[in-house]
Amino acid sequence: MPPPPSLPFYPAYCFSASPTFSTWAKLTAVDVHTLTTREGFEAQKIYFYLNHPIKWVRLVGVIVAFDASDYRFTFCLDDSSGKIVEVTCPRDRTATGASTNSAHGAAIPKSPVQPPSSKARTLSGISIDLAGFDVGSVVKVKGGIGTFRGERQLELERITPVRTTTAEAAAWREALLFHSAVLSAPWSLTADEQRHLKAEADGTAQKAEEKARRKAERETRRRKRAEREKTAQAGRQKRSERDEIVQQGRGPKRRVSDKENDEA
Prior knowledge:
This protein is of the alpha+beta class. 34% of the residues lie in helices and 24% in strands. Strands 4-5-6-10-9 form a 5-stranded mixed barrel. Strands 2-3 form a two-stranded antiparallel ribbon. A two-stranded antiparallel ribbon has the order 7-8. It is elongated and about 100 Å long.
């Protein structure tokens, strides 16, 4: 469902002031499927609810299907909102690799009959153990948003069990409150707020450029010092070799005895 055309969409430098962007947005499965995209933000996986920018999502529900392939874990989450969201996470391939249990430390491939690891590794590199999670588990999941064959997905980053109905009801209340307090109306910024955010962004960019410039200057000075030291060391080596050759050419000094002086 596309957003109303009259909604104001603000530049990315304004997102730091958004109540939805730098947080786990407490959504429902229905909300996830209504998220829209904007040109220029697809690669960053930034989606929009009305004009609220959203990158990270929190959902609470029951796992109704669970699949573990050779490369990823996939399960379906039902939060009773009327939609189901597919949650995915790559399998941690390092957890199923070769072991080094031989006396010489050589890699020994694991036996084909050994059960695969239950560990997953998120896109941000966090290791997650999915042992104990299966169909019927009530969970709280957090992650980024992806799209597969036109359907929104959750790319898993965190998962925790919800052990009581009280905790599940509390999570639902949080989602309802977030919806009524934040998502029920479009995000709005005044012209002064936008100018202030633009000035902050420009200042941050200038600081980043200045930091990069100073780093480059330090690297240039370090490289020149290393080159000077290398040249000086080469000069010292040549002088040492030259002195050694001169010393060898002179040979050992011969002391003249008194008898030889008399004969002369």
